[in-house]
Queue: 2 jobs
Job 1
Amino acid sequence: MIARLIEGVPRRALLLLGVLLVALIVAPLIASDYLLTVLILILYFAYIGQAWNIMMGFAGQLSLGHALYVGLGAYAAASFYVHFGIGPWLGLMVAVPVAALAGAFIGFLAFRFRVAGVYFAILTIAVAEFARVGFDHWGWTSGSSGLFLPVAQYTHNDLWLLRGHPVMFYYVILAASVLAFILCRALLQSRVGYFWLAIREDEEAARSAGIDTFHYKMVAVVISAAMTSFAGVFYAFFYNNLFPEQVFHISRSIEIILGPIVGGIGTLFGPVLGAFVLTGLAETLTAALAAAGVDLPGAKQVFYGICLLLVIMALPDGIWPWLSKRIGLAERDK
Amino acid sequence: MPADIYLNVAVGGVLTGLVYGLMALGLSVIFGVVRVVNFAHGEMMTIAMYIAVTLFSAFHLDPLLMLVPIAAVLFAFGYVLQAGMINAFITRPEHSQFLLLVALAIIIVNVLLILFGPDAQSVQTSYSFDSFQIGPLIVDATKAYAGIAAIVVALALFVFFRSTRVGTAIRACADNYTGALVVGLDVKHLYALTFGLGAACVGAAGVMLVLIVDVTPPLGPAYTLLAFVIVITGGLGSMPGALIGGLLIGLTEAMAGLLFTPSAKSMFAFAILVLVLLFRPQGIMGKRTTS
């Protein structure tokens, strides 16, 4: 199993991955509280980026509404916790099916009725926006006034109820990101993965070759949605408050996909690199502007936007394909 | 009498819908020719709205009189944008174009935020509270003027595409990119022209809309979404479709605001979009493509 996973990966790449993993494991020992929060954010985006990448990077289906699955996961687990005292890991048993069903619903509508490309992207936005306004008016989840979880006690860590110190959350999201990375690698090497790539490259040809494109696109959407819903559960228990205006908003969906696009769509390491680069960039800008004494709301985002522009103009395929060639770690052509 | 209320709200919705339609027309023209989805469309409209607000508060210039000059400014903005940036992205994949325009949208929203602050700004003209009474119908003067102006601008655009040489050349680019290159058309220039026209449309729509709604920087993304909903409902790339989609969405929003709650109105617009995508994916006026 492991032998298959690392088959064809340059030894140096494995070594670097190992170093990165060790660095991430020991990071909380030396990191300040602030840095730890930033690292949690990075891993959170790396994890969701990986999930989104399955749909877009592997199967070629552009989803601009992934906030839907984050929001559904977050609301499912949080409201079960608030209303019935059911913990997040059991809540996951609700969150995952709900998000997977939503994904299956969108996928079924789109792929059965041949809604593709830009139309598909806008359908995903529409469903997410529909959910946002719907949750704004849904009393059981407290509507637009927001759903609040009892604030965590830092005195002891309760992994079962996900109540505790940020360090615990850090290791939870680190484990999730590592598992997502391994899962994506395994998927890419499986039959399904090859079918996805075929569909991404040329759907007509894939169908002609006898691939049930509807089926495999559905598999991609459902896996991606289910994985994303865990990020929602994590979000709810880490931040302890949920507002439809925030979790379901289109800007959340955009945030999710910037990482993998900047990092390199369809690559395994792209979402991870993109999360590091973008979150790092945002935090650096905050610090730099504060140091320069600039106190303008919006100034940070302007610089952020300019950096995005520069990256996409200079490196259309993202940073990782370019960087991996530079340091001689190019993944074998997929 | 309740029937009056429904009728008045419906007429108001249709007039606002015309302005929405003009906004969406800009998006549709750009997509129909350049094949790029302008994810900064609503943001470009807020630029026009802020220009109108500023001209009004500084010099008391009526937005409707400033319609042509402001549309011209947006035309120039759109032309430069396409010529300087987007032309290089024409052959790139959708997600790459998406990122480019989203980055641009982020920059526009936040530059406006820095320049004008987060508070809502509006234009109060001498006719802001006027209304026309036609039988039982009471129509807001601002909405009536805005709706009429939207029709005039849309008609001008139709005439341009149908009857001028440049308009015909642009349609040629849209129909057959390679063919247009072969017969010696300057496609890059025509693309820039088209993007400029789309920007001018949304600019004109913004000037009209500023009479009806208050402007804040975050309005941009909301209207980008609304423009998508309208164009897809009407048929992406179809000019009459954009106007009809605008009318339909304007009417739906107004009725939903009256019958349910105004904050839920966009839900109905999205519901219509989902229905259209299911039963007529090419949109109300769109042509069915074979692929």
Note: Chain B has one domain: 2-279.
Job 2
Amino acid sequence: MKKIICVLGMAVVLGLSQAPAATARDYISIVGSSTVYPFSTTVAEHFGKTTPFKTPKVESTGSGGGFKLFCAGVGVQHPDITNASRAIKPSEKQTCAQNGVREIVQVKIGYDGIVLAQSKKVPAMHLSRRDIFLALAKEVPDPSGAEKTVPNPYKTWKDVNPQLPDVKIEVLGPPPTSGTRDAFLELAMQGGAKSFKWLKELKKKDKKLFKKIAHTLREDGAYIDAGENDNLIVQKLEANPNALGIFGFSYLDQNADKIQGAFVDGVEPTFENISAQKYPLSRPLFFYVKKAHVGTIPGIQEYIAEFTSEKAWGPEGYLADKGLIPLPDEERSKMREVARKLEVMPME
Amino acid sequence: MESHSGIAAVVKKTLNRRYRAERRFRRIGLAAVAVGLLFLAVLFTAIVSKGYTAFQQTHVLLDVYVDPDVVHVGNLDSADYQGLIKASLRELFPDVKGHRDKRNLYKLVSSGAGSILRQKVLEDTSLIGRRIQIWVPADDDVDMVIKGHVDRSLPESQRRLNNKSLAWVDALKEQGRLEKRWNLTFFTAGDSREPELAGIWGATVGSFYTLLITLSLSFPLGTAAAVYLEEFAPRNRWTDLLEVNINNLAAVPSIVFGLLGLAVFLNFFGLPRSSPLVGGLVLTLMTLPTIIIAGRAALQSVPPSIRDAALAVGASKMQAVFHHVLPLALPGMLTGTIIGMARALGETAPLLMVGMVAFIVDIPRGFTDAATALPVQIFLWADSPERAFVEKTSAAIMVLLGFLILMNGAAVFLRNRYERRW
């Protein structure tokens, strides 16, 4: 017994003898969107391998969580870069400014497509945004044509649109905390809602009510909150050919042998279509740099240079292999200039 | 006599029924155990059958000419080693023309092949100017095809590798240049976005540092608290309240400790985010109640006669506790500690809040370096889009289970070896 205590004690002493010497951080700290995470980590790894700097640390906190940490202040305990699958909101800018984070560089890195995918065992669906809205909103415009909403009566896709197959509506999607869900609501649901004239007019008159109609998903089991794990959705789709799943394009790209993307407004979600901005459900991706940290934390400028180099974010670059859809050539070179010169975005 | 035989008759009448009831109960109990074992077996088969392939990795044998024009003494560190790898691939397939095809050809081997060559050259500079044979990891897409995780009969557009790439893979295989080898990288490397280069060593070291902090804080604190509460503290309303609180804390969801850690250790004390130091502190808070409760139970199981005997021969209260009671209770306390540690090893939720759920490539070298932990690594891989991470996830689960079995086995061993029954 005494021996065991001795060994334990020694382990403790050994452990504590290399006591923590709290020093300035010598690696870049990155937080933010889980959609940008695969790209950001790939760049970080290349950066760590090809430069004398340490490999940056990348946390996947979601876009909103990222801004919260990023805007908390200036200093080594706060992150240097945050990734986002949407642009920074005015309220977040305000928080940033209040905490002394006044100089922020915004870099747009490319696009991500949001796909509605299904198993390969059935023919691909052809949906319009209007179909998606009618199938998934909690309250839909009265089918009789009156300008009011009724609780969603549709059970099958055929009820929504006679040209669609006669299968039960069953859509697996991300939870409310996800940036993918935000983008889906904004692009697909709002887009579909706007196809009704009176709802479009409502948007001008009463934006809040419009948003409530367009952004509230069904809770009767047609929309299933499948959690943040997109691989799980892929597995469920394989098992249930009638179900559709909502996730980012990179998952479709990596699992093209098992699942296919539904056509939206007649456009197939392919690399080319999203890049050409023909596919309606695509969103820009960003990262934001805290300029005050450049010079204090080693390697920030070099990391940005790596990210914005052609071998990373170009059409032939290694990020394209990971599923990032690059910016058009002109925009890319413009963004590269912004990034190289660390041009601060306006805070108002 | 009369009444005696009457009882016998009654017993005889109900005896069979009672036997039946007993047999039934035994069968139900056995069935319960069997169902449990069945689930365990399903879990293990699912994990092992998915994960065992990850311990092997497809490698490609390349003849690389270490060109002295590319690598020389002046640029050993930064030379274009990947370029040399590409050149050797071009030599193997001289017919490949065109930009697109060449790019696909280069994609057959891992993007980490260059750094393996670099390591080799750095170790032995005499290789410069020579032609060497070297095994480098194949790309994860090739690996998946070789391991049969991809259906080759699918149309070209639905596969990650096109027909030409598959033909090259087959050609390499025929020449004996493609081989599944023991995947050492998996045990020695940190995380990576390329599945063929990803390993669990970084996470293991992170877990080790975190648990060291947890152990070195929670064991002494927990033991001291248990000894005081059990042996010295007066029984009154305050200690009752304390006891209720400790029992409560043991049942609090672990994420709450993470939030506490975020508020106290990171925001108030300003300790470094994502470090094993903070992770260990948070897990200490989480395991303390478990250890205290186990410790008190162990102390309670020491019979009062031991204390009385010590006091009777003139030992002070403290001597009685430290010379006699504590040594007898220690095996039980250690068992509790090990079980608490095993729980801490499997925990992710509180680490999420203090920033240990992160992509970290470099192996942590101290308590304040950014680090991640084994279960976190599993969580991160499970969420990665690349197909090859599926088997990596299962393999990492197997490693974690191995550690857990080891720790719980140690607890059982300690109990059997040192526990005294009274």
Note: Chain B touches chain A through 54 residues (CB under 8 Å).
